[in-house]
Structures are given as structure tokens and as C-alpha cells.
Hints:
The structure holds two protein chains of two kinds. Chain A is mainly alpha-helical. Chain A contains 22 helices and five strands. In chain A, 72% of the residues lie in helices and 3% in strands. Chain A is globular. Chain B is mainly alpha-helical. The longest helix of chain B has 31 residues, at 56-86. The interface between A and B is large, with 43 and 45 residues.
Amino acid sequence: MSLAAATIPAPSIEYSQLAPMLIVFGAAVVGVLVEAFAPRHLRRPAHLVLSLGGLATAFVLTCVIAGSASIFANGSPGHNAAMGAVAVDRPTLFIQGTILVLAFVSVLLIADSAQDVSPFAGQAAAAPGSPEEREGLLAGLVHTEIYPLTLFAVGGMLLFPASNDLLTMFVALEVLSLPLYLLCGLARRRRLLSHEAAVKYFLLGAFSSAFFLFGIAMLYGYSGSVSLAAIASTVSSNTGSTTLLFAGIALTGLGLLFKIGAVPFQSWKPDVYQGAPTPVTALMASCTVVSAFGALLRVFYVAFGNLTWDWRPAMWAVAILTMVIGAIIAITQTDVKRLLAYSSIAHAGFILTAVIAASAAGLSSSLFYLAAYGFTTVGAFAVITLVRDPGGEADHLSRWAGLGKRSPLVAGIFAFFLLAFAGIPLTSGFTGKFAVFQAAVAGGATPLVIVGVLASAIAAFFYVRVIVLMFFSDPVPDGPEVVVPSLFTGTAVGLGAVATLVLGIVPGPVLDLANHAATQLFVR
Amino acid sequence: MSPAYYVFLAVILFVIGGVGVLVRRNAIVIFMCVELMLNACNLAFVAFARMHGNLDGQVVAFFVMVVAAAEVVVGLAILMAIYRARKSASVDDANLLKY
């Protein structure tokens, strides 16, 4: 027996290259211990230090790794760490850096407790309207578990686009999804809506990950390995059953497209975005989308990179449907969070046009678009937390009428975010859209770009409609109160607005960074 | 007996699970159907591992079992919460979020 054990080589783990993920997961585990052992009044400050400190440290380390000479020596595109399970390359580091910054801003929103005690339920186990719930509220109970749950989700988001084999990718998908399902159901106000969002997200999410997993099984049957590089080499040597290959592409693609909310897998998005607590919606709308696009890009560029002609027609159809249906249904919405959910579906379609290009330009413009869109989204949801009725946030659009007359600054900033979503020049939205459409035209997808421009025009209509509603209609009597933002929310709104403005006026440095990250594509 | 038959069985189980998710109305039963789909994946992985003569598929099956267990923990907690609030686990009753 001892001889048999000696013949198994010990795996080598490059801890320094995996440090950002390890730190975020480590902070999450320490957060669980804080929850178990720290006295109640110390938990929130301890979690704040851990979460914000962990995310900031991980971001600094990501920058250090990106500047490392040894990983990228001799023009190498990157390194496969942890025995080939996790890729460390420039596009992944760009995506991880974006996720960490956006997660930092989202944690600021999650931690904000200035308006009422916290945006989260005091005691999730107590049924809405029950005596237990009232007792919990009077006792001032707060769920501080949200911080470790957020960190676990962020850790999964960091691993998801970095996974170089499909098993790691599946585990990362679940690690990012499971905490999000719970976070969706923890709203303090309108708890029935929040529960319903959690159930819908959970059932549909589990359904889609089953499809993703069956796709992995098909690809494993095709190539005898779950590594992306091995699948790519089986494809180029043209051995194995093409039935298994195409079933695998379709099913894994379905799982990934579900996560980004592309049509026809979009139905969860409006419900979940509306029902979830707004800070969690901000986290999902920014970080999850960035992470899922990272994984989609890696799978389709590395594993299926030689099959562009086979998957492109289906992706064309998905992109066109996503842009058009997202933009058209958004027109009829009356809830501001639901409106942003449909807008997020349309934006996923715009990014897909660049993904379809399957080129370095497509990759770099998607990276830039994701960063620009993420900041605008976090800022917009941060503004939504400020407009409040006595019963919680004033989500219904009719309550926003005349907001510009009562609170010009908040309405002005929200209008600025909406203009960025619409892609008006001098905002980051314009630069991003220009970059993705340019990449798509260069990739030969001119009809797709024409549909994209038309969809942007439809989308601009409903963004402008909200702006007109805010500035040119009479304020509703006993309208919502616009609270003065606390330091945390104020920082989140400010960062979102500054990033949207700077990426619109001087996009050069970030565009250069995205181009530099994308020149060598992904490591294999 | 050829391992390919087990792959066909896995496909059949997966389809039964998928149809179950779409037609059943009780959230617990829907969730059981999802678990059936995950187990169909496991069967496919193990059958393919046998066909390719390597262990990767068997290792994946272990990971999937752990992930499925974690999913049960999270899922039943969420379903419990909605059942307590509504006294019903039917997905047709949860209809506040629409349009």
C-alpha cells in the first residue's frame, strides 16, 4: 500500500497566483467564525473590516499579479495554476479586478444601515407578519450573515471566469449561485416578494445548472477530459462523436447564457431583480454579469474556438432576440427595478455582438463594456435605495414623477446614469457601445450591428421617458422622500457617476488596459 | 454489456427530470426532478469514464454529489421560508412578481 501511495505525485499549487481568490474565500470563512463567536454588537464592525479589507487586498494582489514579470515572461499569455485547473492570464485578471471593485462598491450598499436598521430581514426564519417577526424587530435583530454570504458569492465569481476545466467551472458556478439565492430572499421590506424572487431564482438556477452539467458530461464523453484545452485539441484532431460535441456545446452554452440572462433564458431576471433587496440586485446586476460573461468568453474562445462557424449562427439568433426583446418589453415596465432588469437583458445582447466576433477586438471591447456597464449599474441601483416611501423603496415609476423638481441633484444623477445606459456621447455607455459594435463589424456581423443600433434607439426611448417623467411632470402629492445618502451610499453613487463620466470623456487608459489584456486572448 | 446503454439510460432519466420540472406544480417535486437530472449527469459521467478508461468522470461524480447536497440545504431553506409565509409550496401561488 505504501508503494502505491508513493507513486501518486503531489499536486503543486501556486498559492501566490491564486492569492486574490484565496483571500476572499479566507475572509468569508473567518466571517463565519465571527458570526459564531463574536458578541452581537461587534459583528457588524468586524464584518465590515473583513469584507472591505479582504476585497481591497485581493484587488491589490490582482494588480500585483497582472504586473508580474515571471508569469508573462517571454510573451507568454499566462499560466495554468493548480495543475491546470485555474488560468491566470490577462483577460481573467482584468475581469477579476473589475469584479473586485464592483463588489467593493456593492458591499458599501449592503452595509448601509442609515435609513432603517438594515436593508435585510432581522430574522429570516420568522414568517412575515408573525409575532416572532415583530419580537425580532423590537429586539433589533440583524442578519450579519449577509457579509460572509456575499464574500462566498464574490469568491465564486472570481473563480468562475478563471476556471480552465469544466469541473472547476461547475463548482464555481454553484459557489457563486447558492449564496445569491439566499441573499435574494433576505429583504427586510416586502418579504413575500423577496421570498418569491428567491424561489424562482433557485428553481430556475438549479434547472439551468443541471443542463450545464449534462453538457459537461457530453463534452467529457466526446473528449475523455473536462479540461478546456483537451476539448479544443480533440476538436482540432477531429476524433470523437460530433453528436456528443454539439449536444455539449448547446447545453453548456444554455447554462452560461442563463447566467447572463440572454433571451430565451431571461425570464428569471426581472422577477429576481425586482424582488431581491436592492443592494443584492446591484451586486447581481454588476458582478454576476461580468463573471458570467468572463466564463462564456473563455469557454467559447478556448474550448470551441475552432468551431466558430458552428456556434455563430445560434449565437446570432440569441443576440438578436436578446437585444430586441429586452428593449421592447422594457418600454411597458412600470417598476424602476424591473425596467433596469430588462435594460440589463438588452445590454447582455449588445455585449454578445462582440462575443460573436471571436477576435481580440471582440474580447477587449467586451471587457471594456462590462467594466463601464458595471459601474453605471451599481450607481443606478444605489440611487434607487435613496428614493423611499414609508413602506420601503418607492419602486413604482409613478412615484418618481416630478422628482427632478423636488430633488434635482438625485434626479439629475439618475438621469445621467440613464443617459449612459442609452449610450449618449460623453458617457461610458457611448464608448462601450461604439467599441462592441466596431468589433462586431470588423468580425463581419454588420446585420447584427444594425439590429443593435435599432434596439439602442428603442431603448433610448424608455430611458428618456423616465427622464421626462422626473423633470417635466408635476410631483405626486405625498410623494416619496429622498433621503440624504449616508457616507457608504454616497460613495457608491459618487464612484458610479465619476466612473461613468471619466470612461465617457477620457476612455483611453481603460481602453488601452482592455486592449493590452486581450491581445493574446486566453491562456490554453 | 456496452457502457453506451448506460448513457442512453442517463439521457432518458435526464429528460424525465426535465419534463417533471416543467409540468409539476409543487416546488418540492420540481426540486426532486432537478436532483434526478443531476443524478442522470452522474450516471453519464461514470459510464463515459468506463468508456474512456480514465477516472476523471468518477471524480466529477463525487464533486456533483457534494454540490447537490449543498444545493439541497440552500433550496429546502428557501422553500421552507416560502411555505411558512404562504402555507403552500405550489409554484402557481407565488404570483406577485410579474409583467
